[in-house]
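Weekly modeling sync, notes
Attendees: AB, CL, MP (scribe)

Item 1: holo prediction request
CL wants a bound-state model with adenosine monophosphate before deciding which constructs to order. AB pointed out that an apo prediction alone won't tell us much about the pocket. Agreed to run with the ligand included and paste results into these notes for async review.

Input as submitted:
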Amino acid sequence: MKVLIIGGGGREHAIARKISCSSRVDKLYCAPGNAGIGQCAECVDIEVSNYIGLADFAQKEGIDLTVVGPDDPLVGGVVDVFEERGLRVFGPRKNAAIIEGSKAFSKDLMKKYHIPAAEYEIFDNPKSAIEYLKKSKYPTVIKADGLALGKGVIICMSYEEAVSGVKQIMEDKQFGSSGDRIVIEEFMTGREVSVLAFCDGTRILPMTSAQDHKRAMDGDLGLNTGGMGTFSPSPFYTKEVDDFCKRNIYQSTMDAMKAEGRDFVGILFVGLMLTPDGPKVLEYNARFGDPETQVVLPRMKNDITEVFEACIDGRLDQIQLEFEDNAAVCVVLASDGYPGHYEKGFAIRGLEAFNEKEDYYVFHAGTKQSGNDIVTNGGRVLGVTATGKDLKEAREKAYEATGWINFANKYMRRDIGKAIDEAK
Ligand code: AMP
Ligand code: GLY
């Protein structure tokens, strides 16, 4: 079969590698892809925002299956454009991707269907939000309603900070129209866990757990980023937590979406907080996580194209997911300065050290080909993943492999997966 992936980051590289392991796949394309993806797929120069161009390409090439990586095209309705042309595509339609596209929608959904989450209020003007903040407990959490590159959440320690947060989002329009509405939410404490799940509109099949490290610096200090590293499985995601989420969160979310006439087909990413009062939903995403995918898919045994197709055809009951009984750690190599200002265009050395090496993977996020060199081309440059018999071994191997790579302003966190030691 011929497969097309839409996207061009580390997540799409991990998806491309996994798809290219399938004996069912004769030809793999990725639009727009990147320098690393080019090693396992043919990159096509079409932007993810060009839905018509992508669908034209899929039609012309006779693509049998298209897999959508990023949130923007999903929330924007790329799946609807493909379906209107009778093209097979994996991802939620626009009316279901709203579960990520609008935090106000997802909060109201959870409330209506009794899915455990933080208390909240929604505001569409700054004046009433600020009025409410006078009586709030601190810290409190302010979230832009729409997509904001993972940066639309502000944790406010005081009333003054909260007022300035509201002004940034609603008056200065830091996230554009995504900030026309905000959610003000109760602050929760606990361990965070990411669970990605395959969904066929009716059923939901969770994959193994993972944990992200969102802050830029060691010790969870510094600014929020897209994610500086991940590990899988999470030792905090115990059988008890899993049972609770299966009873109260996963299937309830699928049933809620169905009841609303928004059948969810694709990947549902459930961001959980393991609070002292039990697991609660922090957020939903309508797609694979980045860099969660870089630790989850290398551990998956199934032919992923079969699972994608079962979701599209509404027969996920025929699939049993299987994961290796091992662990994986991904350390992101970033450009120093990220998520603020950074320089790019530096030659990357040492990539060939990963060739043919079992248990070690290098996923390209922000890279591009420049003459004979592969050069840095973004804040998050590479994700270095290693698997091992347990998290400790995977972590040691991942950090060993980060040493094989060099570029001028290489930066990484040194404590990815350190939570593992605390868990003991
Ligand atoms: P989100 O994009 O909604 O996952 O938020 C980004 C990050 O902000 C999360 O990963 C948490 O670390 C933090 N966060 C979001 N909501 C809350 C909350 N209600 N309480 C505490 N931290 C939160
Ligand atoms: N790693 C978090 C995300 O993909 O949103």
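Recorded for review: Residues 2-93 form a domain with the Rossmann fold fold (CATH 3.40.50.20).
Action items: CL to compare against the apo run; MP to circulate these notes.
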